[in-house]
């Protein structure tokens, strides 16, 4: 089978590896618009169980990646100056470029061809292929040029966020919420290597406007954010990597394929970064698509149909939870002043509906008890 993949992110790379292992005669080429050593962003994060799915399908890849991950057993919520560690929520992280570099080497040693620094703008440009995989991100032209065929909906959410890094190495995945004269600022930050952390700043749109970011230079934007989070950064700088303010698009497709073209990862659907599942979802998409071809063989229409049948139920569950999480962040300016630190941390943990009070007792009995002291009815 001749397979051409647009986008050499984790989803496209992993699908290429699985298909090449299934049948080494598959001719697989990935096209990546960026140079080999370039990527946007800083680190990516996984829940502590997020990579477990690799063990069953590709234990060699799991063992290959695991030594490169930073790990921690808890998350921390900072409500202004009050820190609340929450147990039972382990995470792992890795630099995005390091993850991609490891995956490049992994697929290339299998015989997969990666063409870097090449912009593909049309299906015609790809030439003949039995299967085309659109793994080219949330702004995928493959999807946007065929939205009617895919049944695409896109909901641009109002909050603004900007993806920075910092040399401050934080000891856990931390969500820091600070009240300012302009409104509440949230930083999503976590260590992804011993001397670097991701530092993503999120604000409501009204806060963004009051702060004057609309007309502020990139340099002054960094300074402003450094001042807001001075207590957290402890003198360390915020680092930009072509960082800019943006809105999050909630993307969904009713149909995942169009002829011999199929979507993966963020091109298929986006899940808000607040649940730390984007890279995991893309790699799980790859596993499901691979399993569909393993089951259906060379029957491409049947395999693409089977892919959606298998993958839709678990994916939609996570996608819906991510959308509920988005709505919680869109109420930051209301929640932070109204709730005590304990109430706020509890609200964060239960925001998607996947964690109820009984589950909270299992994960962190201390936080559950502190919440019950304020709300005795919760203990009943």
UniProtKB/TrEMBL annotation:
Gene3D superfamilies: 3.30.9.20, FAD/NAD(P)-binding domain (3.50.50.60). The keyword tRNA-binding does not apply. It holds the Pfam family FAD_binding_3. InterPro entries: FAD-bd, FAD/NAD-bd_sf, PheA/TfdB_FAD_monoxygenase. Keywords: NAD, Oxidoreductase. The keyword Transmembrane does not apply. Residues 5-318 form the FAD-binding domain. One of its GO terms (molecular function) is oxidoreductase activity. PANTHER family: 3-(3-HYDROXY-PHENYL)PROPIONATE/3-HYDROXYCINNAMIC ACID HYDROXYLASE, BLR0106 PROTEIN. This is 2-polyprenyl-6-methoxyphenol hydroxylase-like FAD-dependent oxidoreductase. The lineage of its organism: Bacteria, Pseudomonadati, Pseudomonadota, Betaproteobacteria, Burkholderiales.
